[in-house]
Structure formats: C-alpha cells, structure tokens
Amino acid sequence: MPGDADASGQSLPASGEIPVSGVTEMPKSKQTPKKPGSRRREASRKKSSEPTPASRQSREKNSTAFETASANAPLPLTEKGNNRRRQPVESKPPGNRVQLPIETTSQKPFVGRGAAEERRRSERDLSLLTADPGLRADPSGKLTVERTLKPVSSFRGRRPSEGGAGSSVEENRPKTRSRSPQKSVPKNAQKRSTSPLIYGARLLILGVGIGVMAGTFLSMFDPASQYPAQTTEQASAGQTQQTSVKSGEQFAVASELPALEMKQEITALKTELQNLAQQQTDLVAGALFVDVDSGEYVNLNGNMAFSAASTIKVPILVAFFQDVDAGKIELNEKLTMRPDLIAKEAGDMQYKPPGTKFSALEVATQMIVISDNTATNMLIDRLGGAEALNQRFQSWGLSSTMIRNVLPDLEGTNTTSAEDMVKLMGLVTQGKLMSLRSRDRLLEIMRRTVNNSLLPQGLGEGAIIAHKTGDIGTFVGDVGMIDMPTGKRYLAAVIVKGPHNDPRSTELIRQFSRKVYQFFSK
What we know:
The protein is α+β, with helices and mostly antiparallel strands.
C-alpha cells in the first residue's frame, strides 16, 4: 500500500511495485542538490517514474527467468588437499528446493540531472535477469531464487543411486573407499635365503665332478699305460714293499726286487785296480763300483764276505726308515738308553746316564754321523732285534749281510760284502725300499758323516758323497754314493782286510777311489 515501509525502514512506491534488483543507489555526494523552485519538477518526474501495468508484467517475467537461471547454477566447490571435491548439500523437503536470498537496495525515484541515465542502467540490469524464472519477491521487498538441488556424490564425482525426492540422507554421505583384499602369497613361493653351507656343498660337488672328468681325460694320455706289463708288475712289487705289516714282510723278497743293472764291466779300470791291490800282498780287498746311468761297473772280489765293522749300520738305517714309513716308529718317539745297550769305542751317548731319553731321529742320526755304537744298539733293540733284521736283510737280497753281535763287535762277527752294500745303495737310490721323503732324509744324514778319511780323499773338487765308514783295526771299509760335478752318479763300496791299524789299508781305499773318479771324469 502507499506509504508502507519495507524492512529497512524505507518507503515503497505507492503502487506497491518492487524496486529494481541489482540497481545501486547513487551516492549522495553525486546527487544534484535541491534548489528552490524544484519541487514542481520533482513531482513531475516522480509521476513519470511510476511503473505502468506493462512494466510490472515485465518485471514479474524477469523475476521468473532469474529463478530458473539460479536453480541451474552449479554448486560451489571446496579445495581439500590436492583433490577437488564437491561439497555435499543436505537435501531439504519439499522437492529438494532451497531459497537463496538476494540482497536488494531500495531506490528512490530517479530524479535530478542524471535520472534518465540511471533509468537506462536499471532497464539494462533487468534485462540480464530475464533468463531466471525462479526470481521471487517476498513481502519485505527482498528477491529470492528457488533452486532444485540435485544429489551430488561427495566421493570422486560418483553419483549415488537416484531415489527421487524420497532418497535418504545416507545415500548422499561420502562413501569410504574399500580396499580389495590382498591375495596371500604361499610361503613356498616366497624367496628364501640360501645358506652359505649349501653354497659350499654345491661348490664341493662341482669340484669333485670336474676332478673326475679331468682324471678320466688325463688317464687316456697316461704314459704309464704304455709301459710293458713286466714294468708295471715291478712297480707294484715296489709299492707292496712299503705296505707290509710284519717286520719280516714289509717289502718284497729279493726275487721280486729288480737287481742293480750292471751291463758291461770296465776291464781297463779293473786292471788298474788289480795292479794297486797286488802291490800289497798282505792286504785283501773287495770292491765294486757301478755307474748308475750307464750300468758300467768294476767288480773286484765284490761277493767276498768281510767283517762289516760300522758299515753294518747302513742296512740298520734303511730298516729304521722302513718302519717310519710303515708307521711303526715316529721320528719324535722317545727311546730310553738302557744300561745293557751302552757301548764303548765310538760315540758320545755312552757318557750319558742310563735312562736318558733321545728321539728316534736323533738316535739314527748319531749312529751314522759319529758312528755311535750305543745308538746302534738302541735301534737294533727298537727294530725287533738282530734276528728280525737279518730276515729283512735276506729279503732285500743281501746274502752276506748279517748281525751276530751287538756293537762294537771288535771280533768282527757281523759280516757283509761290497756287492751287498752297492746293491743296498742302489735300492735306496731307486726308491725301492722306502718313500722318497725317507730316502732323501737318509742320504742327507749320510752326507753329514764326520769321518772323511777314506773314499772322500780320492774325489775331485765339487763332488758330493753320502757314505758310511767302518773300522775295527783289521777291517776297514767305506760305502757310499758319489755325485760328480758333471752330473754323473756312481756307487762305491770298498772293504780291506789287513794288519791291525795298518795305514796301507786306508791308503788302498783312497787309491781305488781316486782311480775310479778320474776314469768317470773323462
């Protein structure tokens, strides 16, 4: 009605029309100040600004278009983290419609100098609202827009199932993402760590396999397979010698041992030796020299038996290393010096108190290096006695070598021959009676012999001899292996029987040694 006031306290036009939405009131600073006599012009303008029925109908149409445009407008989006997410709007009955207020400003009638311009602006703003049919005006004069809300899913833009106006609120709530159940992996399919022991076992199996293959391949080219059957049997016999158990059966018998090969006798050299021996009519000499490489030899009464004196210690030393190889004696085994084993004449052990202990290797070394008689008796006892040793000597083919009494045996009952001594040294050199390690140790001990008054005196410079002397006054002898600077190796054994402590006996041995060395040096 005319003269009524709106909610803001301003008066509405008398016709009851709603002020134009979106028209901004002109600031007072820009309004034209009233001048005297302008009342008449204002009344005229006010009358002209009253809406006509046509304009009122146009406003209602524009209001309806505004409501339609506002209802189709999209809902606001909210930023949450890095994902854009629609903000759910709770539906409200009826029909999921909501009213949005639109602030309006009451306007006074367009008056003044700029009234025509303001009117044109207002009409232009109203033309923009014609597209929204949901524009409504309440009795207070405010414009509102009615909008039908469409359910929008709150999770990644997915829409819930459409339920119309009666859809429940639960359907519009954000749904929690459900994780698909992980498939359990069988324990057997999981990667297992391999133990270092398994790796070691695999490498061991691989190494054994490669070794078998390599051995099979190399056996096809084994030179031993090209040797005659007789040589193989001889090698087998030599191996059997080192694996026997009983003292008399450690090694093969003499018939199974290859004899030292003596091919051709050196007659010229033999004649020279005979001439030297005949110059001493009261001396009897037995000698044998053999070139190991060529098989040439000189034999002068070589098979004649003589008193062995200390040369009997050579076969005892060979028997000792045989038992070492057989595991019957340890080199560091302690041997006790009993009173019944103490002997005079030679050696230093006799001066030790009875009950003194010595290692087996020390006893064997003293027996050869300084010709200790006590050490010899201790070894004879440890090796099973004289009878057991004699059986072993016979098995080696030493027909003249025998122990009848313990040392010093000044009566000369223990016997041997030059041929037996050379044969024994030949078997040692060829490694037929013992292992190569024991052979090397035996020769090293014999090279340390202190008494060098016999065979070594006839050798030239640079020659090396491993030997053992013997002397009981009436019998003097020397047995050894000589390596010449030229590489030639020969075996020597000389035993001379003569008056007690006659220097001619020792001199004859030196002369024989010199003649043979000079001949082999040519």
